[in-house]
Amino acid sequence: MQFVDKAKIIVKAGDGGDGSASFHREKYVMKGGPDGGDGGRGGNIVFAADEGMNTLLDFKFMRHYRAERGENGSAKNSSGKNGQDLIIKVPVGTLVRDIETGKIVADLNKPGREKIVLFGGRGGKGNARFATPTRKAPKFAQPGQKVKEHEFELELKTIADVGLIGLPNVGKSTILSVLTSARPKIANYHFTTLTPNLGVVKRYEQTFVLADIPGLIEGASEGVGLGHDFLRHVERTRALIHVLDISGCEDRDPVEDYYQINKELLQYSERLADIPQIIAANKMDITGAQENLERLKDALKDENVRIFPVSAATVSGFEKLIDSVIDILKELPPVYEFEEEELDDGPQYEDGFEIVMDGDVFVITGGVAEYLLDTTYANDVDSMRRFQQYLIKEGVIEALREKGAREGSVIRIGEWEFDFVD
Ligand SMILES: Nc1nc2c(ncn2[C@@H]2O[C@H](COP(=O)(O)OP(=O)(O)OP(=O)(O)O)[C@@H](O)[C@H]2O)c(=O)[nH]1
Ligand SMILES: [Mg+2]
Q1: CA-to-CA distance for 295 and 247, rounded, in angstroms?
Q2: Position in ligand 1 atom list of the atom nearest CA 167
Q3: Closest atom of ligand 1 relative to the 177 alpha carbon
Q4: pLDDT at position 224 over 70
Q5: How do residues 165-219 score in pLDDT, each as one tens digit?
Q6: Counting ligands in written order, which one lies closest to the CA of residue 191?
Q7: Which of 213-218's residues contact partners 24+ apart within 8 Å by CB, and which partners?
Q8: Is 190's C-beta closer than 6 angstroms to any atom of ligand 1?
Q9: What distances in angstroms separate CA 371 from CA 100, 145, 339, 348, 411, one per listed residue?
Q10: Mutate which of 164, 165, 174, 314 for ligand 1 pocket (most atoms within 8 A of beta carbon)
């Protein structure tokens, strides 16, 4: 199956249902009172972490997600049904980012975790609610709240305690296969591993999750090779096992390799560079390894990093390495969680308005205009009266006059046009 760890989708919660403007009708009752019910609330958008998924591939094919709209209210004071929530299942470890604001709105970091990310619009009130002693028969009802569409970026960042990092072909996947029941592909060429592999390491009562990612090369943090794309899968880890080919069998110098990889980590992010490391000096079974090991120890003697000589081929040296990892994990905070922020698209409208000219037409924009568009019924007299009063109260009429609007000038709000009456 194809592995996809990034996707963009378009998402919208349900709009609220409209309130109803209805009047009670019954035989022999001359004039019934208002009995229009409220509209239902729109459905929410919910993200859920699903253990059964491990790729965002589905989101490449289906990009649009909409929750159900609230039902309109109707006569006899009956309220419309609320829209159903839409639950979007994603692999555990998926981060949801709102593209417009850059906010991380959800980190689905635990199996079964659910998070409401977008709330459905509120339902409009029916005309029964607008009845007052002086206004016994309101003919208007409130429209449901319209909610905004969002573009989200989904990014899968694997959940693991420890990551294996290093150049291609140094033996990362072999080490994973030796320490866990995972069976990753192993071969003597670069970039054998193309997607992250996970395994669980068990030692006595302790366990931790180990991740193997594709090899990093010089320039990985700038997108060279495969490395950069996969560094996100070790971003959450609590510790890194830095694997070196200590035999230098590919005509490389393990000391240089060590610094090279750390440079790539730092260029990717400071946090990644700050994750505690342990060195697995692998391929100790090959001649020349011992000599290089001494050189490495000497070169790194002032650095606070422990070096464990191992051989994945002969499966030796790993007990000490694992014990050390477990010791380190005890001291460390749990797997990194990203901080979530709320999106506030609520029913608020910004204050103020603006008048711009489109030829001879006076166009009103801004929060005042948006509020009116959402809450006015053009074919209802009472609603239109409120609309006019609101324009006066907010100073829109005055501002139009100052801008030069005269009797008969054309005014536009959204898609409506009407004549200015002075
Ligand atoms: N002699 C010897 N060979 C090893 C050892 N560990 C791994 N190898 C060999 O090194 C080659 C690469 O091993 P992999 O585990 O695929 O290396 P990798 O780091 O995962 O490589 P990429 O996925 O390409 O980044 C394979 O041929 C392994 O059999 C070891 O300890 N000694
Ligand atoms: Mg590999």
Answers
A1: 12
A2: 25
A3: 15
A4: no
A5: 999 999 999 999 999 999 998 988 888 888 888 999 999 888 999 999 988 876 6
A6: 1
A7: 213/163, 213/164, 213/165, 213/172, 214/168, 215/166, 215/167, 215/168, 215/169, 215/170, 215/172, 215/190, 215/191, 216/165, 216/166, 216/167, 216/168, 216/261, 216/264, 217/167, 217/168, 218/260, 218/264
A8: yes
A9: 22, 10, 32, 9, 16
A10: 174
Closest ligand 1 atom number to CA of residue 166 = 19
Q: Is the dihedral of CA 50, 51, 56, 59 positive or negative?
A: negative
Q: Is the pLDDT of residue 230 over 90?
A: no
- The C-alpha torsion from 15 through 17 and 21 to 24, rounded to 10°, is -170
The residue whose CB lies within 8 Å of the most ligand 1 atoms, and thus the one to mutate among 169, 172, 188, 250, is 169
Any atom of ligand 1 within 6 Å of the Cβ of 286: yes
Output the six-digit token pair for 285: 């079974």
- Please state, in angstroms and rounded to a whole number, the distance separating the CA atoms of residues 148 and 108: 23
Which two tokens mark 179? Answer: 């320490």
Q: Contact at 8 Å (CB) between 271 and 305?
A: no
Q: pLDDT tens digit string along 314-350? A: 999 999 999 999 999 999 888 888 888 888 775 556 6
d(CA 418, CA 285): 86
174 lines ligand 1 (CB under 6 A): yes
Domains of the chain: 6-156 (2.70.210.12), 162-331 (3.40.50.300), 354-419 (3.30.300.350)
